[in-house]
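User: I'm putting together a teaching handout on how multi-component assemblies are represented. Below are the sequence lines for each component of a complex, exactly as they appear in our records. Could you produce the 3D structure of the whole assembly as structure tokens, so the students can see both representations side by side? Please keep the chain order the same as the input.
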Amino acid sequence: MKISTLLYTIKQGFANIFRNKWYSLASVATIAACLFLFGLFYAVVMNFRSIVMKAEEGVSVTVFFHNEHDYFCESHEPGQIATEARIEEIGQMIASRTEVLDVVFTSDEETWQNFARDFFGEEYEKFAIGFLDNPLKGDNTYEIFLKDVSMQNTLVTWLESIPEVRKVNYSELTADTLSGANLLIAYVSVGIIVILLAVSIFLISNTVAIGISVRSEEINIMKYIGATDFFVRAPFVLEGMLIGLLGAALPLCLIYNIYNYALAYIMEQFSILSGFLAFLPVDEVFRVLIPVSVIVGVGIGFLGSVTTVRKHLHV
Amino acid sequence: MTNKLLAIKKREQFIEENGIIYLENVSKVYSKGSPAINGMTLGIGKGEFVFIVGDSGSGKSTLIRLLLRELVASSGSVYVMGSDLAKLKHRQVPKFRRNLGVVFQDFRLLNDRNVYENVAFAQRIIEVPSKDIRRNVPSILATVGLAGKYKAKTKQLSGGEQQRVALARALVNKPSILLADEPTGNLDPKNSWEIMTLLEEINKSGTTVVVVTHNREIVNAMHKRVVTMKKGVIISDEEGGEYIDED
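Assistant: Of course. Below is the structure of the complete assembly, with chains in the same order as your input.
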């Protein structure tokens, strides 16, 4: 293609938008509305997901081992008592599992100090002085943090199969709720995105179809003069892509400002929430939202116009 | 020699001997109704000026659309500049059409653009370099007598002037054949004559001109070849002929 033809196509693509300015405006507005909803939805979902992930990071599984001080245990055979070496070995086995994010070892001393601190407060040493021995002696534990809470049951089943493991503490309800929330977010996201894309493609396709009918005379003349299919179609496709690009740029600007304002407002008015609600900074949301919106906008513009041009232009 | 071989020999001989358009036993049937063209055989030589006349529904416009390869014959063959149009692939059609100029009764100009842009449009489509467009367009506008009006919007022009713009656009790419479908249909007698005079001049410069018309006065005055059609068949074909009154 010659440069002059390329320039002509670009010029015509822009000119088409202004020739059918009201239809173009309607298309840009509807795509912008769809992408605005998409962007807003994305920002909310990403924040919700970040909060869920933060909550997931706090979910842990605690493993207790058989030991010689374990008076309350029903019975244990000599082989079931976990030696220090065996506990270390099990720790390495846990750490090497794919679903495990982190493993924290807590010795019996630390466990007792933690318990005493929780029970008696900061001055626990005064009250705990009556205890000559560590009442929790031998209660070495592993606290395991997971990459994905939905894998908790798999890990627990495996841990319980180790003979030296006396008890595994975990919350099935928390894990189920969080993995359920994750699944729900994924399904709802996909559903809403598909609906928004379908609506946008329908709208852009209508705009291009109207553009073609408005300019059928010009297209006929082009056909009679000997214009190639590409020459006739390219301005319409470019028009669709430009409408898509504009339709993506407007909501991005709007969402950027709304998001910043909303974040500042929430932090100011509900500062108490900031401890457990992990809101994402605007840059992190827009690092993904900008390319996705532009690709989706231009993509639906391209797709909508190409299919319409193919359908309505028999050149 | 069989009839078929004879026909092939006749066609090849015609095309070899300066033939530019050749229709061989052509029929065109639309999805409903009787054939618009029925078994037509017609040859037009290079540089000829031919009137195609006939009442509405006689098949004149279908003939133009067949020559433009907008339609494909239901049977028979249409040869234009040596190409069998039925065998042209879709992607070859634009290149083929660049050798044809076409003018319509309703001018079909781009009303949002000026005279210069309307004519330049035809050159841009076939990717003529800009510097050539700047040279060719004023030259062809001068030929059709519109050199002084190149900036005017087409809606500001009279019917005759609009048809001149259409002619300039049809001629700027130097076509071998000019097809004019009722070029004077929307014009008063004075403008009609001016357009026909222009067509005659264009023909004198070597372009084959095929004019479909209802204008009896012009046909009878110009003494050109006249092909008369009725219900899809040629009922007369005479050099220097006259518009036959079917009644």
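A couple of points students might notice: The beta strands of chain A are 60-65, 100-106, 141-146, 165-169. Chain A touches chain B at residues 2, 4-5, 8, 19, 217-218, 220-229, 231 (CB under 8 Å).
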